[in-house]
Amino acid sequence: MSQPVKVVLMLLRIMIVGGVVGGLTVQGHTIEPSQVSAAESADVYISASVIGGFPEIPGMNLAGREISSSNAYKSVGGGFKVGIFPQVTQRMLGIELEYFGTTGRLSSSNSSGTEGKAGLTVLNSMFNIVLRRPSGEILPYGGFGLGYSGVILHGADFPGRSNQDIDSTSGFSYQFMGGLQWKVSEGAFLFAEYKHLVSDLHWKALSLDYRANYGLVGVGLSF
Question: The whole model's pTM is what?
């Protein structure tokens, strides 16, 4: 098991145990564990979403030369989250494990008019810290995430690059996000979210600064 996964699992265990301990103590009195359910000690949820991406490529370098114009577009995909808000944080501060991805197109041109293009698939694994309103029918939230982005070029046709097959790389990434949850029943909710992700990516003879704005809509189940 990789070190980042071990760290995430350790943090999850700490927050779950802390939430249970917090739920066992009310006004200085200890409650028997049999009287405390998981729902009373923490808010746990899973969710799935569809995503529209609006990438920006502020910088692109090909074979050591700066590309004058680059663009990413037609970026769509989906995502999945697991989150927990423990009682020890008054269910206001929580953590999420998130996986989401999009696929689209990348194009470029230089000052001489030479053009290049490729398919661009971006897969992101993130650990998020989220602050939210703890209760109500509508819950606004915001957060910050760290993780890795795995990025695949496919059908790449760039001058100076011979590899036109699938070519992948990965890099550190971070994101900011904010959104709203709407409670539609006791155990279900809808949500809408905006996020901004940043990553620097490098392949052989190609590198780019990847910045993307994402819009998400989805549905979740709480426990």
Answer: 0.78
